[in-house]
Amino acid sequence: MKRSTSRLKMWSSRSGKIVLACLLALMLIPFMGAGKAVYATSSTWPAVGQTVQPTNVQTLLKASGTLYAGTGNGSDDVWSNRDGTWTQMIGSPARVRSLLVDADGTLYAGAWGDGNNVSTYTASGGWTQMIGSPSDVYSLIIDGNGAIYAGTGSNGVWVYTAVGGWTKMMGSPGDAQALTYINGTLYAGTLSSGVWSNSNGSWTQISNGVNNPKYVASLVNVNGMLYAAGTPNGDNRSVWTYNNSNSTWTPITGAPARVKTLRFVNGTLYAGTASGSGFDDVWTYTTFGGWAKMNGAPGSVYALLDDNGTLYAGTQTGRNDVWTNSNGTWTQMGVFPGDTNTLFSVNGTLYAGLNKDTNAVWAYTTRGGWTQMSGSPGYVYALIDVNGTLYAGTSNDDDDNDVWTYDTTATTPEWTQMTTSNAPSNVYSLLNVDGTLYAGTNNGSNDIWTYDTTATSPEWTQMTASHMPGYVNTLLNVNGTIYAGNATPDENDVWTYDTSATTPEWTQMTASHAPSTVTSLLEVNGTLYAGTFNGGNDVWTYDTSATTPEWTQMTTSNAPNDVNALLIVNGKLYAGTDNGSNDVWSYSNGTWEQVSGSPSQLHALLEIGGTLYAAGVNGVVQLTAPGTPANLQAGSTTFDSTTLSWDAVTGATGYYLYENGGNTAIANVTGTTHTVSGLTPNTSYTFTVSAFNAAGESAKSGMTPVHTLSMVIPTYSVTYNGNGATSGTAPTYSGSYAQGDRVTVYGNTGYLVKTGYTFDGWNTASGGSGMSYATEETFTMGASNVTLYAMWTINTYTVSFNSNGGSAKSDQPVDYNSTATKPTDPTRSGYTFGGWYSDSGLETPFDFTNTPITASKTLYAKWTANTHTVTFNSNGGSAVGSQTVNDNSKATKPTDPTRSGYTFGGWYSDSGLETPFDFTSTPITVNMTLHAKWTANNTDGPSSNGGIPPVTSSNHTVISTDGTLTLPIGRAGEVSLGDDVKIMISAGASDKELKITIEKVADTQRLLTSKDVPVSPVFEILKNFPENFNKEITLTFTFDPNKLKGNQKPSVFYYDEIKKVWVEVGGEVKGNTITIKVNHFTKYAVLAAGQGEDPATVTPVNFSDISGHWAEASIKQAVSFGIVSGYPDGTFNPNRTVTRAEFAVMLMNTLKPQGDGAELTFTDKGKIATWAQKSVAKAVQAGILTGYKDGTFRPDAEITRLEMAVMIAKALGQSVEAATATGFADDKDIPDWAKGAVVAMRKQSIIKGKGANTFAPGDKATRAESVTVLLKMLAQTGE
Length: 1279
Known about the structure:
This protein is mainly β and 1279 residues long. 7% of the residues lie in helices and 38% in strands. The protein is built from seven helices and 93 strands. Strands 82-84-85-88-92-91 form a six-stranded mixed beta sheet, with no helix packed on it. A six-stranded antiparallel beta sheet has the order 83-86-87-93-89-90, with no helix packed on it. Strands 58, 59, 61, 62 and 63 form a five-stranded antiparallel beta sheet that branches. Strand 35 (403-407) and strand 36 (415-417) form a beta hairpin. The longest helix has 15 residues, at 14-28.
């Protein structure tokens, strides 16, 4: 196999080839029937020299230049061969055992059968069964008088004369296997009773098996002496002579056993045997040399024939059973070469170099067929002719002399190995440049050798240099520049060598992009082609005429790969590849195409006289010319054209069309239809078609007559179309126009109107994409009718906006019947925009979406004055009601509040009581809270309660009840959020200004697990600096005792943001409040601590928003399983969408996998909330989550039904690979990578479709949907 890449170098040696051949043989044994040849051929690519051959040959005959063979197969068992081709004679008898020709040239055939088993054949009358002839005929012979004798199986010997017909000879022996006639005596050799003679009409037994032959298979006359092939009783002596004068038999010493036929030729006796070995079953005997076995002879020989020095042997092996021997070499007729590496043609002879160990050169002529050249070398990869001497490059062993010669001009040419002390080995390419032979070898370095055939004493010289090609596969000469293609691990595998240079040297064609593993080179009109063996797009081009030539890979959607050969035939580029089928490719018009039916695994291409030959693993085949096209018809004939059509021809690459019997094609087409134009009106024509391919052109089809029509000048009309007009009529014209006439376009004479539009001329297309024409404009009439459509320009109206004191809005132009675009809302200080109205009285709101504009109009803005709420924080004093104040108006100072023990000090705008509020001059522009300031009353001495020391105004407590507090440095403070939580700050707790906020946490799903039982809201308490307080702070929470179960007790917990757990702090319980002291702020909640109700008691799950919901039961079950929880306000929010992070948490809560999960590498992992990171990590480790192609996870993206299906399928171990179809109506919207998951979810009823049998892959999944499918998944796992 011609692959010289480094990776396949192991098969280049002789041992490698032997191993490879054995492996291939073992692989092919199961696929090869007995007697079958493995040749990949087709009707258009037959094997070269392949013909049908006779099998199971029992007799041979040569008469009048025609070779005949009688076979034993069951029907038509006579074959004829004239000019080298066997033809089965249809109608000939079955199971033929003997043939003869009489003096008139009539052919006789004796056959095995039940009667009338002699038939005759003449060229004029064909085959005729001779009525009255005997049955079971073994042998036929004719004497000098024209009498024909027939030896039969059990009916003795019969004689035929023209006068008496067929008659049985009385007393003749049965089982007469052989007959001969010597000097007036007829001899019969039998299979059971020896040899008999007949002279003067009487039969006599002359041998009976006692020291003479008994079981006789053949008789022959040798110069008047009878020779018999047979064996006596208990003896292996098989060839005997008979002395008629003394009636004695003598065995010939050393004769072979099991002789089936004898033939005497020019002093040599030939014996054909059936030894059972399968080969070497022909022996020779001479009186001076004795017996000798003919090496190379066929096995199972039953017939021998001599024809002017050529010996023919008929065998019974079941395949190609006629052999010839000329000049001592046996050749099986009809056999053709197998695995072929190279082809070469010279002087009408095609040579093939094969991939076998010996006699690997075969020669082919059309007359003689294939001949295996005896003595030729093995493993031949290159063949070339230099002045009549054929050179063969071989690859046998790395140290062999691997070039052989064969002088075709010699009287007796023979193959000679060029043995010298220094000669190339592993030769893969040979090239002749002006008498100098170049050899490319495959050894790894310095792989170019030269041999000057014109020198007096030529010798091989290895070209050595520091930079030389190695592993050379192919050589090419282009005008004195030699190109070498080699195979190395790197690119740049083409080298050049300019023989005309003063100091020529090898140069590697280096480029950033160049071919590697080059197996073939070809030059066509200045363009170099390189075939490579790399698995894809394996043809490259190099334009040597370009200013800056460079290699270009021929990359197309369908291009050959693993190219071993390149060739140009009739201007078309062909590539031979080494794949599995259709390995011939053709290239034309920028497109590669596989040649249908072409052979596979090719190593060589060759063109001879326009015929394309291809050789490879399956032998040598050729592309035959296609058959003649049939069914040529003409149709659609006009005054100047006709359309021809015909049947496609297998193997054709194109068709030639001929007109009126001419021999010059008028068209070259690839399809099976063609329109011939430019014909003369009212004229008769004839047309023919032929098919062609690379092998040649077929015969022309029969003629098809065509008569063109008489020419009639057609006329055409112009029609006007209102094109949607609502009133009026389109213009009309009753006349017509000839092609080339000038047409004047009408105006809108019928007063066409289209509501909302203005007439704007005419156009040849209703949509305005054709030619436009104005009134009175002209155009030239073409060859078809014309319709002119009215063109309409849509009317545009103005929508104006009256902002009624607000910011101005621009007018809008709006097309008729379209809708206006709602502008951005105008603004007006102190007012809220209330929308646009159609009327100035602001009674009718304007609907921008559904109101079409059919006239200009004005829209009016509506305004509502803004109001603000002023809230009064009495800071422990009597309550003061809030006030609603119009924007930019002033609040009314309320009646002063009262507080026991304090004096009211006025209202302040800040909780720190630093800025007094001025009711008379301060306009209200936002909602605000005013804070009461108090001063403790002084006392003259101790009171009855023990006395309270006076509190100075600088140290009074700052109080806030809205959850926010700003506390000056060192001051005491109190801040609460309703009755839910209160914070007491001691004076001096902070040496900085302190700002405190209290907020209820709305979404606690990420904070609370199924084990956490909150009995109060979760509060996030924050301050404006990270340091802890100088003094402990008192927190008091109100909790719901009804939420405590069994022996549970309330306890304050804070949330550890690092560990993501609740840490118990404790607290002092008084009624429904609990108090603790802390030195830092974070998230706090009162949770139930301790053992709850009896484990057997199930706590009912109640949410305020799931009653009657379709997923109510599933939600309660999922909460009880710890998959999900509700919100602190007692809701579940079933219709709220779920993010990808949230669903990962739900899924892991369902599966409860072990371990910490995989390390997260998502580029946006910083966006994954801490509460979700562990679940996401576990899902990644389990292969459930992979993220997006850009490396992100997108935790906050809402999860879709499609993503949910894929994640659950992976969790269940289901295949998510593409299925053929999901069965949903919107299957096209489901990507291939998810179809397997969707099918799995549907089959398991985990995720079903929606209405109208849709899956809705892009819909977002809700909390209710999520828990429902997770419970279904849980049911599938059996947990």
